[in-house]
Amino acid sequence: MNRGATAVACVRALAEQSRPLDGVVVADNVSTDDTIAQLESLKHLPFVLTVHRMQANLGNAGGVEEAMTVAFSKGADVVWILDDDSWPRANALEHLLKPEWRQDVVRHAMQVDPETGLLTWPLPVESARGKWTLAWSLDDLPKQDQFRTRASWTGALIPKHIYEAVGPVNGELFIRGEDEEYPWRIEQAGFHFEAIRGAIMDHPGPRNIIHWQMFGRSLFLERGLADQKLYYKVRNMVWLKRLQTGSWESVLIAGAYFGGIVIVDGPGRVPLLWRAIHDGWRGQLGPMQK
User: Fold this and answer.
1) Average model confidence (pLDDT) for the chain?
2) Please, what sign has the CA dihedral across residues 175, 179, 183, 188?
3) Residues in the chain with pLDDT < 50?
4) If you placed Cys at 48, which of 23, 123, 172, 271 could pair as Cys (CB 3.0 to 4.6 Å)?
């Protein structure tokens, strides 16, 4: 939405792939500037570019839900999930498709913050001993070319077989939720994730991330997060944890987020946090109501 230059840069990065794509679908969340005009003015692309005009701003989750529907309706065998500011390096797709293709595995690229050189988000990886650890940089990753991971979203290749088994993305999450909820559903359906070391994409990461360990889980907080992003982050987390583990553990996680954010950002965020927890507990999803 209103990010024409960023979206154009992403499309151009896709046009430079050593293994050309067959099509690109851009979901436009009701831009009010010249974003659509910039995209539709691109010429001589090595793929068919479809600019899908959303009827309402449904956030990233709603945009991806509709874009995937459009892509599969056009005959795609697999879709590559990207944000407009995630720009794959020229051989990323080639590396993702180089191992023998499997319809029952979600492969994904490595997301690297171009400013820090670290992974955009810490990545859970399976070690040689079968234990799960968090990788913060490319140097922390296993040495083999492909390895098991968990909960990848941006940069993931979703085969049609998995999409048909799992169903569409839950667009009601709006933002800050589909990246956890959909991978969880993929794992619940019996599929797994694997990273391809040679597939790299540049994607800016958060600048004020705080990592705590609570109740045996990793808790990631972003200092000074904008109100809307904080609302969706907490609301969707409460809703998802209640769905996954039941009421008691979701209460603990909600309390941990509530206390952590108040400590980090101050008591002024209490009303917003309370509203987000209340809406998540009741399952009131969709765009944040004014």
Assistant:
1) 93
2) negative
3) none
4) 23
What does the pLDDT read at residue 65? 98
Specify the pLDDT at position 125: 94
CB atoms within 10 A of CB 214: 14
Q: Which two tokens mark 245?
A: 């583990």
Q: Which residues pair with 200 in a beta bridge?
A: 110
- Answer for the pair 241, 247: CB distance below 8 angstroms, yes or no: no
What is the per-residue pLDDT for 138? 94
Contact predicate 124/133, CB 8 Å: yes
DSSP string for 170-234: -GGG-SSSHHHHHHHHHHHTT-EEEEEEEEEEE----SSEEEEEETTEEEEEETT--HHHHHHHH
Closest among 106, 81, 76 to 27, alpha carbons compared: 81
CA distance 158 to 141: 22
Q: Within its chain, how far is the Cα of 52 from the centroid?
A: 19
* Sign of the CA dihedral running 121, 143, 183, 202: positive
Give the span between the Cα atoms of 72 and 56, in whole angstroms: 21
Q: What is the pTM of this model?
A: 0.93
pLDDT of residue 177: 94
The whole-angstrom separation of Cα 259 and Cα 238 is: 14
